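Folding Task

Wanted — backbone structure
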Amino acid sequence: SSGINAEYGLYTYTSELLPTLARSTGVSMCSTAARIASILSPFVIILNHISGSLIYFISLSCIVISMNLIKSLPETLNKPLPNSVEECEILFNKKLKVETII
């Protein structure tokens, strides 16, 4: 139950960080990554044959990496959603390198 709540919270937070023009693409990329992870999750049982503690090490590594990545995200409470890349730059307080493909 808490995993499902965390998943929907992640979708909400992801959509708040991305500008309007890239919001659907960004959320769909996150959804694709989650689906790939869920497809690969049954194969984790195979790791139990290699080492019983390897599963815990991989899980802990993923948790630590994601916690460090989440700490680098800006706070979005009571802030308007960005509509352009320029507004995202202001939200992140840094200049983003954006390339356009024509």
Observations:
- Residues 49 and 55 are 10 Å apart (CA to CA).
- The mean pLDDT is 75.
